[in-house]
Amino acid sequence: MTAWTAENIVDQTGRTFVVTGANSGVGAAVARALGKAGATVVLACRDTTKADPVAAEIGANAHVRRLDLADLASVRAFADGIDSVDVLVNNAGVMAVPFRRTVDGFEMQVGTNHLGHFALTGLLLDRLTDRVVTMSSLAHQVGGVDLGDLNFERRGYNRWLAYGQSKLANLLFTYELQRKFVVSGSPLRALASHPGYAATNLQGHTESVLDAVMSVGNRLLAQSAEAGALPELYASTVSDVFGGSYFGPSGPFEIRGHPKVVGSHRKSHDPVVADGLWTLSEKLTGVSFGI
Predict the structure, then answer these.
(1) What is the DSSP string of 42-76?
(2) What's residue 201's pLDDT?
(3) Which of the residues 22, 48, 77, 173 could staple to 27 if both were Cys, CB 3.0 to 4.6 A apart?
C-alpha cells in the first residue's frame, strides 16, 4: 500500500460506480479518477448543473443524476433509476452548517451525511454487486451518537458536535453493515474512508467566521482534493481489501499522505449503539435492508 496513487487503479472497464457529491472536491476527484480508469460513473448530485462540467471532463462514460440526500423522496427517485451498481461511494456531506432541518425533518448534518446515505444504500442493495464505501472523518472522534435525540429536538445545537455525530454514525453504519453481510453470507463488503485534511469547498459553508479561518487552513495545511480522494479510491477499487476496513492518510495524525488502513475511536465499535442506530435509522427513513 506504500505510495499508492490513482495511477495504481487497475482497469475498471465494465464496472459501474455511483458517487454521491461528485460535483466538487473529493467527490469530483474520485469520479475523474474512476472515469480515467474506464469505469462507468454516475455522478449523484443535488445540483446537476455543477456536476455537468465534471461529467464533460470524464466523457461518455459519465452520467449525471439528481440526488438530494436531504430529501428521502429524491433518494427514492434516484434509486428507482439505477439498474445495477458495482460500487456505491457514499461520499457527499455537509459540515458544521447552521441549524436547519431536511425536508423530512431531520437535523441537516445527520440527515444528509448518515440517514440519506443509509436510505440510499438500502434501496440499492438488491442491485449492488461488490461493495459500499462510506466517507467518514477524523471528526468522528469528537462525536457521540445520542439515540434519544439524534435530531437535536431537545438538546442545544452545536454544529461541530452534530458533525461529529454524523461522521461517527457513518462508521457505526459501516461496521454494522459488514457484520450483517457476514452473518447473512453475503459476498458484499462495507468499507469506510476519510480524506485527512483536504482543501475542498466543504469548509466554506459554515456561514460563519470559520469560513475565512478554514480558507487559510486550506492554503497552509491541507492537501489537495485529489490527494484526499486516495483513501476513498483505494477502498473503492482495490480487489483484496477486507470488509469492515477503514482507510485514511498515512502521514502524521492522518492529516495527509498515501492511503493505509487506519483505526477508529472505540465508540465506533460499540455493537449496542450500532444496533440501536440501525433500528432507529430504519424507522426514520422507512428503509429496511432485509438482511
Answers:
(1) EEEES-HHHHHHHHHHH-TTEEEEE--TT-HHHHH
(2) 67
(3) 22
Could you give the CA distance from residue 212 to residue 208 in angstroms, rounded to a whole number?
8
Distance between CA atoms of residues 196 and 136, nearest Å: 10
Residue with cell 428507482: 80
Q: What is the pLDDT of residue 143?
A: 87
By annotation, the residues acting in catalysis are 163
Q: Is the pLDDT of residue 203 over 50?
A: no
Distant-in-sequence, close-in-space partners of 7: CB < 8 Å, separation ≥ 6: none
Q: What residue ranges do the domains of the chain occupy?
A: 6-285
Residue 229: how many other CB atoms lie within 10 Å: 29
Task: Please tell me the predicted confidence (pLDDT) of residue 222.
Answer: 74
